[in-house]
Amino acid sequence: MGTLVLTMKASIIEMFLVLLVTGIHSNKEVTKKIKRLKFNVPQINCDVKAGKIINPEFIVKCPAGCQDPKYHVYGTDVYASYSSVCGAAVHSGVLDNSGGKILVRKVAGQSGYTGSYSNGVQSLSLPRWRESFIVSESKPQKGVTYPSALTYSSPKSPAAKAGETTKAYHRPPVPESTPQPGSVTQVLVVTAAEAAHTTLPKPSPSTASPTSSPRPQPVGHRSRGETDLWSTTTYTSSQNRPGANPGIPRQDASGAAFQKPVGADVSLGKLPAASPKVLLLFPGFVPKEELSTQSLEPVSLGDPNCKVDLSFLIDGSSSIGKRRFRIQKQFLADVAQALDIGPAGPLMGIVQYGDNPATQFNLKTHMNSHDLKTAIEKITQKGGLSNAGRAISFVTKNFFSKANGNRGTAPNVAVVMVDGWPTDKVEEASRLARESGINIFFITIEGAVENEKQHMPEPNFVNKAVCRTNGFYAFHVQSWFGLHKTLQPLVKRVCDTERLACSKTCLNSADIGFVIDGSSSVGTGNFRTVLQFVANLSREFEISDTDTRVGAVQYTYEQRLEFGLDRYSSKADVLNAIKRVGYWSGGTSTGAAINYALEQLFKKSKPNKRKLMILVTDGRSYDDVRIPALAAHLKGVITYAIGVAWAAQEELEVIATHPARDHSFFVDEFDNLYQYVPRIIQNICTEFNSQPRN
């Protein structure tokens, strides 16, 4: 009997040992399998914005093709959370256009995101945004757990498009007790891969504080008439439910979602297999800035580094065809996107021409790139001939006006697009445009080959039209299908306002010094007439600290600076200063006055300004004028000499710049001075416009 008992005990012990060894082996196998589980990197689309993803730090995989300008990016290095995640990665150089994995980390919002062009992506400027992010290579940091499934703040999550499914935690019954102030709400969402090694933190007001925690705040909005339930439907299934608003929590009367009783434990084993992360939320707390800005598009004020008023003259002729016309429209939309349209930056309007030109929309019609692109899409083709010359004339006379949004402080630019060659002449219309301060660019697509040039009404029409013939203003495109290659070079040149030479006209780019005879022979009444003549001339110019500037010197035996070139920066101030000039009376030392003007006025002239001296005298000088006049000519000062009554003609011709017939004038009476204002202005502008255009 005893032997039997011992045998049974031995068998039981042996069975126990076998089971123990088997269990240990099985546990090792399970452990090995768990260790072999790879981290599942979520995939997103190019249009996913960082602000739609709640997770503060995550690794994602971007597809190819995110270099497309339709995926907006705001900022440089640090990006506003309204930006495309993948677009920002391409812009920063972390990815190329073939896609790949990246690490994204949320950071605080900032005021002033600077746009830039990098790696084929044009990022835009933005005054401020509530949240930012940075992107880097997908190298996981030690001790940081990255989600296998992303948590989105919008019910229209783009995750499903990329094949990702996101599950939400189903809320257990809400305890009847009313949440106490300062208690913490938990929305429990943990991924299956994280469940094995994640420890839930103990909630406390300090860790949930929006100022001390990097975790973003909830974006749930209170629903009307639904105060009890939280929606827990997954994003994927919501597409099959009409009217459903899944994924957005609905708050109860207290604003609580799931209140964890103090001291209670949460069992991970009861969670679904795959859920998002743990978020710590105050009951009913929804930040005011989230409610007010979550769904709002950031409104860009435009790129201040590209402040131009831009007109595109597009070819709507019948020869272009519908397909090429669509390519032309797409090019315009891409330009609008790249320019970052806005009231503080570039403004853009479009004129379409065929037989006759017509404004599609002017400079003030659309004040941002998005609206402009929408309007471009709606443009329909006119048909007819390709009368570009008529279109340029139309733009000069009608487009750049204050009523059409022309700001006056921004350079005027006209970009003419033509299929082949124009069917009319452009030279005269372009000359008038240039003299009006319009910088003309030409884009010629599929231009005439050698045997077609005989059919052109105006050979070498591009050089006759553009602002300068140095190649900066002309683009020659072999095929419509290669038009997109001119996008970035064109944008760069249009925005280079320092090189827009035709913005400088005869009326807005001079430093003018008036040298006024105040001798006794003039008399008080005639002196006031001379001042009126000076005012009439000044009134013709565009006066500001960056445009034309005006100064004045009065002389007798001595000289007096009435006001310098840098004294007044508006036309009204200059005209008032001229009125206040007092009559001096004395002798006539014109030579000394010229030297004084060179020293006191033109020595302070800006290097990019034309220097004009306009001298008015009524008699022969008591001193020699030849050496001072020669000094003025050698210093590049263009001198106009106006003599009245007893002035010596030969002396006027010595003072005046060559040819004297264009720069010296004799008037028999003071009262006839006003008649010479138009002629003097015409001569000033003719001389300016005759400068070489190379």
TrEMBL record:
Primary localization class, coarse: secreted
Polar residues bias (residue ranges): 229-242
KW Secreted (keyword) present: yes
Top-rank lineage group of the source organism: Eukaryota
Region entry Disordered, spans: 144-182, 198-256
Signal peptide from the UniProt entry: 1-26
Ranges of biased composition (kind: Low complexity): 198-214
Any single Gene Ontology cellular-component annotation: interstitial matrix
Residues in VWFA domain copies: 309-494, 511-684
Keywords: Disulfide bond, Extracellular matrix, Glycoprotein, Neurogenesis, Repeat, Secreted, Signal
Entries under Gene3D superfamilies matching the protein: LCCL-like domain, von Willebrand factor, type A domain
Molecular function (Gene Ontology), one example: glycosaminoglycan binding
GO BP: any one term: spinal cord development
Chain ranges of the LCCL domain: 40-133
Subunit annotation: Binds dermatan sulfate and chondroitin sulfate.
Function noted in UniProt: Promotes matrix assembly and cell adhesiveness. Plays a role in spinal cord formation by regulating the proliferation and differentiation of neural stem cells.
Protein name from the UniProt record: Vitrin
Organism: Otolemur garnettii
